[in-house]
Structure formats: C-alpha cells, structure tokens
Amino acid sequence: MNNTTITNQNPELTKNYIIHIIQLLDKITIDYQNTKSERQAIALKYSPLETEFTVLEEIELLTIYIRGYANQIKARGYVQNPVETIKTLQKITMFDIQKIAQLYFHTPGEYENLKSYLRMLDYLRLLILEYLN
What we know:
This protein has 133 residues and is an all-alpha fold. It is 71% helix and 0% strand. The protein is built from six helices and no strands. Helix 4 packs antiparallel against helix 6. 20% of the residues are buried.
C-alpha cells in the first residue's frame, strides 16, 4: 500500500468517504471552539498532577492525532504511512484513557458540548479507519 493507493474501493465510494471526512472535520472544528467555556471549567476543577497529563491534555492529544489524519485526507486525499496510521487509530480508543472515561461517565449533565465533541471525534476516527481499510 502506498500513499496514493489507499483502498481497493471503487472511486465513487472513496470520494464519498473523503467528502464525509471533510464535512465531519469541519463540524468538529466548530464544535471544539464551542467547548471553550467547558474546557475552562474543567481546567479549574481538575488540578494537574506533576507527572501525568491532565484530562484536557489527553483530549488535545487525541484531537491532534485524529484531526491531523483527517486534515491530510482533506488536503491530499490520502495519509502518509497508511499502515502506521491504521495501527495508531486502532490504539487510541478514547474510553481506554482513564481520565477521559472518568470525565465522560462520572459527570452526568455536565460538559455536554465537550462530550458531544468527543463522540464526534471518535466517529471521525472510526470513519478514517473505515476509509483506510
């Protein structure tokens, strides 16, 4: 598999995947901006530990990976190193990160915009995986 040959899908299906990835990327970019007040509240409520990432830093890392791959697809129609990308995306499951899972499941009725953003970010991760497989 090289950079220009991502899948064995027909061109129309590949085009549809790219369109959906771009649309979702654009949506979550706006959604992320709409979480600013919630992220500020989380930063105040959850004090950082010296040796670990904060929950917001964990979310940022996920965001960088997933949106970075989506941006490559948006710009080029493919990702560099698709095999490595698939491995990375399979490993970074959101709820395996304890701090994110705790925030998501143990704060009912709070941070709903951020939780929606996380769901859409994970959906984007799965959509990219589907596109690359």
